[in-house]
Design a protein that fits this description.
The protein is of the alpha+beta class. Helices cover about 15% and strands about 30% of the residues. The longest helix has 27 residues.
């Protein structure tokens, strides 16, 4: 009998020892919130988004952020009323920050701490003003981009001409994929605010490796871009059509421009030779006078002859 009791005790002790690590891994219970919410001293309209942030919080869950359904209130005190649920591996007593439509809100009570398993009423108010040139003043906006994780091919996977890309974010945001093999392209923007994202790429080339990045932007216009990933479509890449070598067009030999034959400049005709001057009319010989002259010469010659002879005789 003692052996049976000892055996049972040993089994109970063994079960306790085996169960202890499992109990140690049970995540802490969340802290839930509800209360009033005002924008610019008036009740926040339906559709206003309320969010709580703290280190290690699980953002982008179904209940953080939540939307205002009844103007002026988020969540409710009833057991079945929705609430802003803050959960994660959060340090006990950590201080929370609340946002209304992406703008940091004032809280009542002023200091709100996280405690596992509690339900707390926290009233929120915020003043949303137009941004001022040069900064300064106004409410502080959410400037934290979503965190992208778990980027992979969806179960639909890759075909010859399509690829399905999935990823997660820690807060609700839109979905888009930038992809490329030669030139960069972007998928159509899916403006639905989600935390589980799915984008299908179409019109891809078979047997081709593509590179891609996922992109998500929250309501406060904070954008996150993932690291670079790749996939290869199924099938065989098409053989590129060889580009025909262009036949060079022969350059036509230019036809020489005929040199115009110079037109000779006409030589001006020589000036007309004036007609020769008419010969002066021949002088008419006056024979009587000439005969008289000759006779006179002969008379003078005879006189001279006789004188010379006479002197020679003396």
């Amino acid at each position: 009998m003692k052996r049976i009791v000892a055996l049972l005790a040993s089994l109970v002790l063994l079960m306790v020892l085996l169960a202890t690590p499992a109990l140690a891994q049970v995540p802490p219970l969340p802290h839930a919130f509800y209360g009033e919410v005002e924008i610019n001293d008036g009740p926040a309209p339906a559709g206003t988004q309320v969010e709580a942030k703290v280190d290690q919080v699980l953002e982008g869950t179904d209940w953080n952020p939540i939307d205002v359904t009844e103007p002026g209130y988020y969540g409710g005190p009833g057991a079945l009323d929705p609430k802003l649920v803050v959960q994660g591996d959060i340090e006990e007593g950590a201080t929370l920050t609340f946002y209304v439509d992406g703008v940091e809100a004032e809280t009542e009570p002023v200091l709100v701490e996280w405690h596992s398993g509690e339900v707390t009423e926290v009233n929120l108010s915020v003043t949303i003003t137009a941004p001022r040139v040069g900064g300064g003043g106004g409410a502080r906006r959410d400037t934290t981009a979503p965190r992208i994780s778990a980027v992979l091919l969806c179960p639909e996977g890759v075909t010859e001409t399509t690829a399905d890309i999935c990823w997660k974010t820690n807060e609700k945001s839109d979905s888009q994929v930038e992809y490329w093999c030669n030139g960069h392209k972007k998928s159509d923007l899916d403006e639905e605010m989600v935390i589980n994202h799915h984008v299908e790429l179409t019109g891809l080339t078979p047997g081709t490796t593509y590179y891609y990045k996922t992109m998500s932007m929250d309501k406060a216009d904070n954008e996150a871009v993932s690291d670079e990933y790749s996939f290869t479509t199924l099938g065989i890449a098409p053989t590129p059509t060889p580009t025909p070598t262009p036949v060079p067009t022969p350059t036509p030999t230019p036809t020489p421009t005929p040199t115009p034959t110079p037109v000779p400049t006409p030589t001006p005709p020589p000036p007309p030779t004036p007609p020769p001057a008419a010969a002066p009319p021949a002088e008419v010989i006056n024979w009587p006078v000439l005969g008289g002259i000759i006779a006179g010469v002969e008379v003078v010659g005879l006189l001279i002859f006789f004188l010379v002879r006479r002197r020679a005789g003396e």
